Amino acid sequence: MRPQPLCACTDVEASSRWYQQLLGARSEHGGPHYERLVVNGQLILQLHHFDVTHHHPPVGDRHDRPYGNGVRLWFEVDDFDGALARVEALKAEILVPKHRNPPSGDGGPNHWEVWLRDPDGYMVVLASPDGSARPDGSM
Description:
It is built from 2 helices and 8 strands, in the order E-H-E-E-E-E-H-E-E-E. By secondary structure, it is of the alpha/beta class. It folds into 2 domains: 1-51, Signal recognition particle alu RNA binding heterodimer, srp9/1, CATH 3.30.720.120; 71-139, Signal recognition particle alu RNA binding heterodimer, srp9/1 (2-Layer Sandwich), CATH 3.30.720.110. The strands form 2 sheets. A 4-stranded mixed beta sheet has the order 1-4-3-2, covered by helices on one side. Strands 5-8-7-6 form a 4-stranded mixed beta sheet, covered by helices on one side. It is elongated. The two termini are 30 Å apart. The relative contact order is 0.19.
């Protein structure tokens, strides 16, 4: 099984550029209605315009805010420090700056996280691989 997350957005092309820069992804479809983003040939995210219906009902209601209430778009990234630099370059709104999960000791994922917002306001989490953060706070 492979997850294939899809989120609705107000500007597919702008969101595509934002996620491509953030995640080092590339477009596999493109256009104003729908996008497929891939990393190393693997689909990581689909973007779909709120108002476009093809052969299905709308994927969301653009007036029902906040978008993604209760959902986080969570990505594990191999180069966490590089991802932080890309977050800074995007001038993304950071909700929770770089932190270790758990804050100290063993247990849990023992990784680094940063929480931010995408252009539509969805909450996005970038995390280093599980086990990559040592209890002393180093990688």
